[in-house]
Amino acid sequence: MEKDTRDVIEIKNINKKFGLMESFKTLRTNLMYTENLQVISVTSTVPDEGKTVVAFQLANSFAQMDKKVLLIDCDLRRSSLNDYLVISRKSIGLTEGLTKQSRQYIKPTNIDNLFVILAGKRPPNPSELLSSPSFEKLIEQLKESFDYIIIDTPPTTVAMDAVIVGRVCDGTLMVIRNEFIKKKLLKRAKQELERNGVRIVGAVLNRVKKNQIEYSGYGYEKYY
Known about the structure:
Elements: H1 18-32, E1 39-44, H2 51-63, E2 69-73, H3 81-85, H4 94-98, E3 107-108, E4 114-117, H5 126-130, H6 133-143, E5 148-152, H7 161-167, E6 171-177, H8 183-195, E7 200-206, E8 218-221
Parallel strand pairs: 1-5, 1-6, 2-4, 2-5, 6-7
Antiparallel strand pairs: 3-4, 7-8
Helix pairs in contact: 1-2
């Protein structure tokens, strides 16, 4: 496992709106005071709820505190990190790392303290790859090198990947797009995660209107 310092991933078009940044500072603070929470996965119920943006903004927020942060794209079926963050070019990533095709899959970025592992090439068997002992071993190794690890996973209705990844994480955040998803489907997704041993530590309410919350864009709720 080596970090390739010659291959910097440039992240562009970072949203720095005050309300957005303050919302993620609040989320960050709540998570910091949650017990035993170093590795955090981020998922949603269905596609297009904004989970990838939340994963990045949370990782970026921790990095602003001089914490060494790793953002991992575990959405091996439909990787969105390149598109949302306008990463300048594709690169090797998690697939190549887990299949031993490369050891240089941890990439530094142009943001201080923030590193990424991109998804890499789409494998024929994402669930099997993520459920392999190699993935759990990798996460344990990475915990020794980073203060926080944020993992973007597929939506729960797409595949079991979010469950598989969530089991090896310390906690999972659910991203909920406001006025977009039926409560029954959301409740079913939450129950499915918990039934399989995933610890849900909170939910991020995305695309909240200005008159609905103090900071427009994102809200936070902790599950008990």
